[in-house]
Amino acid sequence: MKPRRLGSSGLLVSDLCLGTMTFGWQAEEGVAHQILDRFAEAGGNFLDTANVYSEGRSEEILGGWLKGRDRSEVVLATKARFRTGEGANDVGLSRKHLWHAVRASLERLGTDYVDLLQVHAWDPLTPLEETFGTLDQMVRAGLIRYVGISNYRGWQFEKALQLCRSRGWAEPISLQSQYSLYARATEHELLPVCAAEGIGLLAWSPLAGGFLSGKYRDGVRNAPAGTRVADSDFKELYVQRFETDRAARTVQALASVASDAGKTASQVALNWLLSHPQVTAPILGVRNPDQLTEDLGAVGWSLSAEQIATLDLASALETTYPYDKRADEQQNRDRTLDAGT
Questions:
Q1: What are the residue boundaries of the structural domains of the chain, listed by start?
Q2: Is pLDDT above 60 for 330?
Q3: What SS3 state is found at 48?
Q4: Concatenated DSSP letters of 317-328
Q5: How many CA atoms lie within 13 A of 71 on its CB side?
Q6: How far, in Å, CA of 39 to CA of 17, rounded?
Q7: Which uninterrupted H or E stretch holds 163?
Q8: Measuring CA to CA, which residue among 1, 3, 47 is closest to residue 271?
């Protein structure tokens, strides 16, 4: 793995981020520590968790692994927003809940600061001034180093960013959003915002819950034993989601490109994300060290322009104005340098 700047900040992170939502759920402490060891040995320094993953158990497992290690070598990210108790104020992005949530996360993680605190989702009740003013206070207090945002829409992110700039507060440097060959709606608003504002995109569910791993070439109805779909109580929901013509085209193109590149489907799907300049790192979600080893093969090489075009075409979403090619042509008409203007 190689270091990349997170957005336009000076913070350097590995080009793959290890997500820990599986810790305490699909990977107990011993296996989780093996995964963390292998990630660190491969040059990874970027770890992502949240205070609600396995009801805080993910943070506790991470905290146990961090003991005795050089804290400065790890870029540790967590999140706050969702419910952590039964009280009326045990949820949201209010000043009260944020301070409580962050202090509880620090205790579970066994550290006195986190490198990146991300608001986990939009809070329609709390004023942005309250949320981001509080986050700025936390930066100044040394509890967090940087501010990030997760699961915002484009207008929500831009509104928060401009507020921080107008008040001289710590600005968000990253946006964590769902993005993959399957989930490409991020390209409509969020990628352009990241490009315009110097924001690093962190892509969660980069393999679409395993759909892009190469295990479902015969469709999710015929999911092989041991896969997430086969073991799920919600198989019909997976069928409704993934049994579409576009999904089938995407999987077929992925298999073809993987064969041509001599890589696995997972590695190609992750490398496709890394080919986008706004993507700082896909967030890996693995259940065991072997899955991690395969995903680590996504770095150190690049898809060709032809291979990227094949994947783009097969997975393309149907778009309408103002996101289609006609709108692009209209906005650029007579206003490009090669047109002599």
A1: 3-335
A2: yes
A3: strand
A4: PP--TTSSHHHH
A5: 11
A6: 9
A7: helix 154-167
A8: 1
Q: Rounded to whole angstroms, how far apart are CA atoms 310 and 11?
A: 34
Q: Across-strand partners of 19?
A: 48, 285
Domain 3-335, CATH class in plain words: alpha beta
Q: Which of 53, 152, 182, 238 is catalytic?
A: 53
Active site residue 179: no
Q: What is the CA radius of gyration of the chain?
A: 20
Report CA 321 to chain centroid distance, whole Å. 27
What is the C-alpha to C-alpha distance for residues 109 and 62, in angstroms, rounded to an integer? Answer: 6
Q: Which helix (H) or strand (E) holds 2?
A: none
* 70 three-class SS: coil
Provide the 8-state DSSP code for 77: E
| Residue 241: per-residue pLDDT | 77
Confidence of residue 237 (pLDDT cuts 50, 70, 90): low
Task: Give the separation between CA 118 and CA 48, rounded to whole angstroms.
Answer: 10
Q: Is the separation of the CB atoms in 79 and 117 below 8 Å?
A: yes
What torsion do the CA atoms of 300, 6, 276, 287 make, to the nearest 10 degrees?
A: 60
